[in-house]
Design a protein that fits this description.
12 strands; Aspartate Aminotransferase, domain 2; Aspartate Aminotransferase, domain 1; 2 domains; single chain; binds pyridoxal-5'-phosphate; globular; 15% strand; alpha/beta; 7-stranded mixed sheet; 5-stranded mixed sheet
């Protein structure tokens, strides 16, 4: 895998060192969270004299995490309290009444719902796999690739060029990929918006979001965060930073588990529509292989109906029924229960970092149990 790190380091090294301060004897590698709302001010010169004044505006714990994510993505990062806080910040900063936004029809459902609620904004929904309409008259093209939950992939470079030619801005929701999977800014996008709740932090214990862009957009998003107060707590920001050092290892195991489980699922008669962009023959495989540096550990597949999914999840010892994805534990979510426009039996399986053989055995047994109950 070619390095994307400015210093030429590989992904593991880049993640371990992401955003860390220079070594100073007697200090920790990663300084702890600074839990402060106000900081001491210079009595005479006020906030101009020191970096920290009030925690909502900026603080040292965010700066560390923003340096880490910004370094991995190749731009300037602003962290938010959740992925939706980052996405709504981007939409409300970039789009106003009279504007048209292009959004994925198969992407994260809340993004569509939020955009549809904006007064005076026209939303055009397009499937991630295309075909894409002309971007004439469009203010913002928000791509989501791979799309959650269906895992279709679009060509960021090609669509960014088309959007820019029409005068539109391009944002990419890169949540599923993480910065190790793809770096949208290097592919021509103007802005990354993402949830850090998923694989980026990966321990199912933090809600976080972020944007990455150039200096001008970043300045506007920082002001927006301060004005609206969509701020992550320093403790969450620190937990996220602490988790980043293992991102390379976690993704490697998740991806290997997804490869094995996708192949196993594709061979079962009661399972249909197995989607994993790493599977040769998957409709997204060609673009993903060209664009992505690694394929995420999320697999989509469909069982005959909702009850079948319920029996499968009840019978499994290792797969937790849970929404969200990208964590160290393998989880599965029946997406129709949240209102996604997918078949009732559609499952988004998020592969954790358990041993591949254990997962294969457990899923096989649970699927057999679910099928036997159907037959009986
Ligand atoms: C989860 C998710 C979000 C929202 O993130 P939160 O941290 O839950 O607010 C946005 N986009 C995608 C693709 C997601 O998977």
């Amino acid at each position: 895998m070619t390095s994307t790190d400015p210093a030429g380091y590989g992904d593991g090294t880049a993640c371990v060192h992401a955003g860390l301060p220079e070594p100073v004897p007697g200090t920790p590698f990663l300084p702890g969270p600074v839990l402060a709302a106000p900081y001491h001010l210079d009595p005479e010169n006020g906030p101009a004299a020191a970096a920290n004044g009030y925690g909502r505006v900026d603080n040292p714990t965010w700066r560390g995490l923003e340096a880490a994510i910004g370094g991995l993505e190749g731009g300037e990062c602003v962290v938010f309290s959740s992925g939706m806080a980052a996405i709504s910040a981007a939409l409300l900063t970039l789009v106003g009444p009279g504007d048209t936004v292009v959004l994925p029809s198969d992407g994260y459902y809340k993004t569509r719902a939020f955009a549809a609620s904006l007064p005076g904004v026209t939303v055009r929904e397009v499937p991630t796999a295309g075909p894409y309409p002309s971007f004439d008259g469009v203010r913002l093209v928000l791509l989501e690739t791979p799309a959650n939950p269906g895992l279709d992939v679009c060509d960021i470079a090609e669509l960014s060029a088309a959007a820019h030619a029409a005068g539109a801005l391009v944002a990419v929701d890169s949540t599923t990929a993480t910065p190790l999977g793809q770096q949208p800014l290097r592919l021509g996008a103007d802005l990354v918006v993402a949830s850090g709740t998923k694989a980026l932090t990966g321990h199912s214990d933090v809600l976080l979001g972020y944007t990455v862009a150039g200096p001008e957009l970043t300045a506007r998003l920082r002001t927006w965060r301060d004005d609206t107060g969509a701020v992550p707590g320093p403790f969450e920001a620190w937990l996220a930073h602490r988790s980043l050092s293992t991102l390379d290892l976690r993704l490697a195991r998740q991806s290997a588990n997804a490869a094995a489980l996708a192949r196993m699922l594709a061979g079962r008669p009661e399972v249909s529509s197995v989607r994993w962009p790493g599977l040769p023959g998957d409709p997204a495989h060609e673009v993903a292989s060209r664009q992505m540096r690694r394929i995420p550990g999320v697999v989509a597949f469909t069982l005959p109906d909702a009850a079948h999914v319920g029996r499968f999840l009840s019978a499994s010892k290792l797969v937790y029924a849970a929404t969200s994805f990208g964590g160290t534990h393998t989880t599965a979510d029946r997406r129709a229960q949240w209102g996604d426009p997918v078949p009732e039996g559609m499952v988004r399986l998020s592969c954790g970092i358990e041993d591949t053989d254990d997962l294969l055995l457990d899923l096989d047994a649970a699927l057999n149990a679910a099928r036997a109950a159907t037959a009986g």
